[in-house]
Amino acid sequence: MENGGEVSSEVQTVSSDEPRRPNPELRKLLVFKVYKRRWFVLLVLCLLNCSNATIWLTFAPIADQSAQYLKVSLEEVNWLSVIYMVVAIPVSFGTTWMLDTLGLRVTLILGSGLNMFGALLRFLGTPRGTAAEVRYVLVMLGQTLGALAQPLIIFTPTKLAALWFPDHQRATANTIASMSNPLGVLLANIISPLMVPTSAQIPVLLLAYAIPACIICFLATVGIRSSTPPTPPSASAESSSCEPFIQGIKLLLKNKAYLILLLCFGSGIAVFTCFSTLLEQILCVQGYTNDFAGLCGALFIVFGIVGAGALGLYVDKTKKFIEATKINMSFSALACIAFSVVSLMPQQKAAVAAACSLFGLFGFSIYPVAMELSVECSYPVGEATSAGLIFVSGQVQSVLYIIILQALTKRLADAPLSTCGDANLSWRVPTLVMAGLCSVFTCCFIIFFHTRYRRLEAEEEAMYVTPQINDSATDEDAPSVDT
Questions:
Q1: Per-residue pLDDT at 481 exceeds 50
Q2: What's the average model confidence in pLDDT over 150-176?
Q3: By C-alpha distance, which of 452, 393, 459, 438 is closest to 256?
Q4: Residue 78 predicted with pLDDT over 90
Q5: Which whole-number Å values give the CA distances from 20 to 16, 17, 26, 233, 235, in the listed order?
Q6: How far apart are CA 86 and CA 273, in angstroms?
Q7: Quick check: pTM over 0.70?
Q8: Of the four listed, 173, 307, 314, 404, which is most buried by Cβ atoms within 10 Å?
Q9: What pLDDT digit, counting tens, does each position of 301-352 carry?
């Protein structure tokens, strides 16, 4: 029933062998309200996530022009993106504490502020009159501010979904917010090359990225008035973050199911990072152009967003988190194996594009569902803590995997089809190792991961209790309650 900006729903009693009566002390939890403003908060987070991703990868698609304008080497240009991974690992622990302790509003305002100042600093540091060495330093400082903002943004979707959305919309909200990051990656790969045919247009590009960052910061600061709605949308939202941060970490380290998810899904994040980072280098050896590699990367992201949206809606209705994650991880491993084979064959554009599309379709869709699963298996630990540690695991494993895969490459004496320039490397062993890692951790997850849905169980117990009535009890007596 709609009432102004609110939608309220009363939970109906469920018949059972024994009478089920509302717990009088939890009466307030029996009527939950959701507010239309939750969609505004979600919109701000999506815009912020997308903006931060575009700032992260601004220079990656235009590395040559960036090196020319900033008067630095390509390796130094790569560090403008790598700094995000380096900063994220130590900052993540403070971010999880901030989200679960200081709240959603403070975290989003701080994240949007850092994102805005980073974007402005990059633009202000690139006028033609600025000395070359100062220009690169200012751009790197701007990237570092954006890198500090990233964990504040990346960890927020699960928390936002838990605090503002009812249980039948949580996975969908998490999916929408999470997939805005790869959408930003896609936009950066499209916008940067279009706007920068030559290095002279780089200041204009940085201004184009700075303006949305300023608007989003204004929306977050003025529009988000509180961390939580006036009344909770679900029973679990009332007790969100009820465990202190340090105690929550201790509980996670003792939770077998969570540790399996932490290792296996963190490995999945690492494989996806390696795929995105090394895609062009893998394909160019067999004669595939940069344009085709960019197309494969775009298909990877687009199909991933579509798959995530469909899976999020399905899981919201069925609550089959484990089944959906295991099935999609299995198909992701198969797609990774297929890519490791067809990417080594020349003149197989259709097969390579199909493998990349399927890898994105099944792999990307796991992310928001797995983050919701991390909350379900670790409740009542704060949502930011449980989701944040998985992100940290993925970042650490990403660095290790990239180092290992690059070490396994071999320089080719003869590569007649190569479009890689002077860097002709054989990626046969690294791609097979990547597929093997994906397969091993997928099998471990399927075999060993089992858990109860602790948050859903807690919500059920909070809504209803089954009174055990003694023969001598009357209606006026206070019955003993079995919780």
A1: no
A2: 87
A3: 452
A4: no
A5: 7, 9, 14, 22, 17
A6: 14
A7: yes
A8: 173
A9: 899 989 988 998 898 889 899 999 999 999 999 999 999 999 988 888 999 9
Amino acid in position 454:
R
Q: Could you read off the pLDDT of 353-399 as tens digits, one per residue?
A: 999 999 999 988 888 888 889 888 988 887 778 888 888 888 889 88
Q: Six-digit token pair at 262? A: 């932490």
Token readout for 172 is 């969908």
